[in-house]
Amino acid sequence: MRRIQKYIAPVLIICFAGCLCSCDNETGGEYRTIETVAQDRLTIAFRKGDRLRDTVTAALKVLADEGVTAQISVRWFGRDITMIEGRRSATAELGYTIEPRTFIAGLCASGPPMNVRQQDKYSGFDAELAAAVCEKLGWELKLRAVLPENAAVELAAGNIDAAWGLGGADADAFDLSPPYTDNRTVLIVPSRSGIKKTGHLNGKTLGIRNSDTYLLETGAAFISGMEKINVYFDSGALFTALNNGQCDAVLTDSLVLAYYLFVNGKT
Fold first, then answer.
1. What distance in Å separates the CA atoms of residue 247 and residue 73, rounded to the nearest whole number?
2. pLDDT given for residue 234 in this prediction
């Protein structure tokens, strides 16, 4: 019977220094990507009929034209991972006056690089992007962390004005911004392991973040063949376990992988 073990202790980013190298899905580098388990595009979700969607989208287009979205991306990933169409006149073309207001953004992604919370302060790619939008529009920004599955309830209750960084959102339930970046859930192994396909994982140990355990229900064939699944508090602990040989393979987001490679100077 497959065993699932949880590892709770968080690991700081400093633990990764010197551990990560470039990711290559064939050969070379520290890691090999052997399967893409899921693929999605991140959007911003709004209440149905709320023109905040158009206002925020227009601001993002202006910021993209000015190079601001690319600058924020480079700070967190070392390259521009955004897919926002730039248009300098986007806000002027809205056809209505943008009034001052307080904008409450619910951050759906948890942990670096998208959302990093220290006491009552937030940083991260999504947090900085929301801050740039509000600065452009002359709005005051308030940030909250929300669970993606609670986004509809939080919006309906008026607790947030937007669910930022929502993947797989139902267009029938929300008004959605255009996607602003791609994200993939990837299965990676150390290149030195010699594992080159999922069939080689039978009887091995899989590592996964606590927030991603729903992926175990995808029915992917390689999951049923794993001897043990270790669940870790965050991506820091996940990568440390992979580097130390406690796991043979891990599931992680491509954005998380890109971030950790960048901060360790391996991109």
1. 30
2. 82
